[in-house]
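[AMINO ACID CHAIN]
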Amino acid sequence: MRILIFAVGKIKDRMLKEKVDEYFGRLGKGIEVLVREVPDGKAGAAAAVKKQEAERILSLIPERDFVAALDERGKEMDSLEFAGFLTNLISRGRNLVMIIGGAYGLDESVRKRADLVMALSRLTFSHELARLILAEQIFRGFSIIKRTPYHH
């Protein structure tokens, strides 16, 4: 399975980036995670910035992949449900695109394109922290699928 993460902005904190890379590095064979950093929008007003970021993101999404946009108003899952979600995609032969918005969140056009709008939490996180939480949950999901002891 391939997971492609589109994230607006860069991780500036070296320790956070190392931890994200560590989780993805521990996934093992058969699971490829690629992170593509999308530049922050520079248009000015929040709506214009989100629109600019959305245009960049939407132009990069592979047609056939399942798209999950992260938004605090989206569907919440616990870790077991997330592992089931990943298992379902694997069984259907689908790759996954996950989208993390910038400082102002996601434009409605990205939410509409998504096959699923999901929440990591009802809390709002910085894009850097959202990436770390997502990386840990991806690792946890695959540890549940593989029945390794990490989740317990």
About this structure: The chain has one domain: 2-146. The CA atoms of residues 24 and 86 lie 15 Å apart. The chain has five helices and five strands. The longest strand covers residues 66-76.
